[in-house]
Amino acid sequence: MVLFCLVASHRTVDLNTVARLSTGALGVAEDAVSRGALTGAVTLSTCNRLELYGELPDRGDCDVTLAQQRLAERVAERAGLDERFVLETMDAYQGAEVPRHLFTVVSGLESAVVGEREITGQVRRALTQARQSGTASPHLVQLFEAAARTAREVGAQTGLGERGRSIVSVALDLADDITPGRWPQRHALVFGTGAYAGATMAALRDRGCADIEVYSGSGRAQQFTDQRGGSPVTDAGLHAALRRADVIIGCSGGSAPMPASAFPGGPRTVVDLALARDFDPAVADLPGVELITLESVRVAAPEETRESVVAAREIVDRAARGFEAAQNARSMDQAIVALRKHTMAVLDAELEKVRAHHGCTGAEEQIELAMRRMVKSLLHTPTVRARQLAAEGRADEYITGLEALYGLEVAPQQDTAADQDPSAERFPSDTPRSRAAG
């Protein structure tokens, strides 16, 4: 198993760059899997980050750093960005760094609003999409399901995120401070019908806002409001809805931002939560208009308590070590099976020679029993040593030794995880720069 990931997030680049990279990444992972360059891939794209997880074929000629470089170059090409800029921008993780990073992300420790819970659902949906597209390899399924378990443990055992903070909630808190009146008297207009739009609708209702309209350039507003409430807005009614709205919230990330000239006059608050902006930043220059962006949310997000963050990081560290140990143990199991099969094949061949030369004698059964006891004794020490090396994270050394001494090829572990129900939720230089996780 050779896992890696490439990451661009709000911690290292501006959100416009994240949006462009996310656009460039569309279909890149699936293409790499279909060409055989990767065994599996999962793409995580949110308003704050793009993360590409990949698994390389378990072959000696696979260079993980080169694979990361080629994937980043492909994203750069499709995004229309300079390749060297992208290579220097995206953080690269390999091996044990990968689960540690994903577990940190899915627990909300890397979010603009530390401890927010939305990221857990986004990671789950990323795995579901990869399973549906056929790119989720068994090892990546194991990784993401372990991430979901880690997020649940962090939520259950720490105070991280217990205040229910999220990007949406912080944005609406900011809007509350600068918009006249109270939520029960305000009229809201939501752009979009995706996960963020759903979270926004729920957050608005929690604050007492009942007058909510929904617009979608895709035409899905009617279906969305049938399921979640609110009133759909058509293209013909959009201008009137804009005029009625006290708070306008963008969650769609349409192909082109709405120009400032499309906004009617009058005071209102505009909240742009879309990764690719829904509204031209020039709306902030309109008389009486206040603009809240993802950057505003990041700056305004309150800090979690140090104790909660420390406790969450301890859980993440323990989970990452446990995942790595489990993977090493699985690899070592295959190595032990390969050694035993080889040894028993040699024993059976030698026993067959004895039978062919001496025929069936009364002593044959005793000879076979003695030889099998001897082989079992000879295998005891290598088996014990295998377990010790696996616990120390040195499984590769053992496997390399078997291949060198016996010419054995250790088969990759068989797993049916990728064949399970895709809807199941068990829960997150010239090369991309390498970052230590945590």
Question: Which structural category fits the helices and strands?
Answer: alpha/beta
Beta-strand percentage range: 5-15%
| Mean pLDDT reading | 84
Q: Give the full name of the CATH homologous superfamily of the largest domain.
A: Glutamyl-tRNA reductase, N-terminal domain
Largest sheet: 6 strands, parallel
**What is the CATH domain class of the largest domain?**
Alpha Beta
Domain Quinate/shikimate 5-dehydrogenase/glutamyl-tRNA reductase: 174-297
Protein name: Glutamyl-tRNA reductase
Binding site for substrate: 46-49, 111, 116-118, 122
Family: Belongs to the glutamyl-tRNA reductase family.
How would you summarize this macromolecular structure in one to three sentences?
With 438 residues, the chain is of the alpha/beta class.
Question: Notable features of this structure?
Answer:
438 residues; Beta Polymerase, domain 2; Rossmann fold; 3 domains; 6-stranded parallel β-sheet
Written description of the protein model:
By secondary structure, the protein is α/β, with parallel strands linked by helices. The protein has 3 domains: 2-163 and 421-434, 2-Layer Sandwich (Beta Polymerase, domain 2), CATH 3.30.460.30; 167-300, Rossmann fold (3-Layer(aba) Sandwich), CATH 3.40.50; 327-357 and 364-419, no CATH class. Helices cover 52% and strands 13% of the residues. The protein is built from 15 helices and 11 strands. The chain has a 6-stranded parallel β-sheet with strand order 7-6-5-8-9-10, sandwiched between helices. Strand 2 and strand 3 (49-56) form a beta hairpin. The longest helix has 53 residues, at 306-358. The radius of gyration is 28 Å and the shape is elongated. Mean pLDDT is 84; it is low at 414-429. One of its GO terms (molecular function) is glutamyl-tRNA reductase activity. Catalyzes the NADPH-dependent reduction of glutamyl-tRNA(Glu) to glutamate 1-semialdehyde (GSA). Its EC number is 1.2.1.70. Pathway: Porphyrin-containing compound metabolism; protoporphyrin-IX biosynthesis; 5-aminolevulinate from L-glutamyl-tRNA(Glu): step 1/2. It is an enzyme of class 1 (oxidoreductase).
